[in-house]
Amino acid sequence: MDAEVVAIGTLLHDLGLTPSFTGPRRFEIEGADAARAFARQQGLDEDRARLIWDSVALNSTPSIALYKEAEVALCTAGIGVEFGFQYDRIPANDMRSILAAFPRLDMKQRFADSVCRIVKAKPETTYDNFAGDFGERFVPGYKRPSTVEYLMDAPFEE
Fold first, then answer.
1. Which residues, 6+ apart, have CB-to-CB distance to 32 below 8 Å?
2. Nearest CA-CA partner of 82 in 53, 112, 54
3. What is the pLDDT confidence band of residue 127, given thresholds at 50, 70 and 90?
4. Does the reported pTM lie above 0.85?
5. d(CA 124, CA 79)
6. Residue 158 pLDDT more than 90?
7. Nearest to 52 by CA among 17, 2, 1, 9
């Protein structure tokens, strides 16, 4: 297990939600590309840079990421704790210590605001990720693009 890859992937996993790294593609890809570029600039080899890319790109898709390399799976599992996933597996005293050292700083609202900004600006990137869930709940008039619509509207005669 490469602890440095896990640390970098975990620390940089939400880069694509920040205005500095917003581009035309879904936020996970924008962030993953930026994290990989950073890793390369720091001299990490291509295998390690790829693991960082996967960790950032797939962290919001645990149904895939948890079956990737150990570094990717560990990043995803750890990042999931900020949503409460497997929170109960961390001893209560340890969690209190962690939260005292690293307060959440209104994380729920700030995260929701960041995701909603993406939903409003690039709704076409939200059809197969959790950003659409935020759009449906918080963005008036948002309609999630549908894979079914893509298939049924495909330009093929059958």
1. 16, 52, 53, 54, 56, 57
2. 112
3. confident
4. yes
5. 25
6. no
7. 9
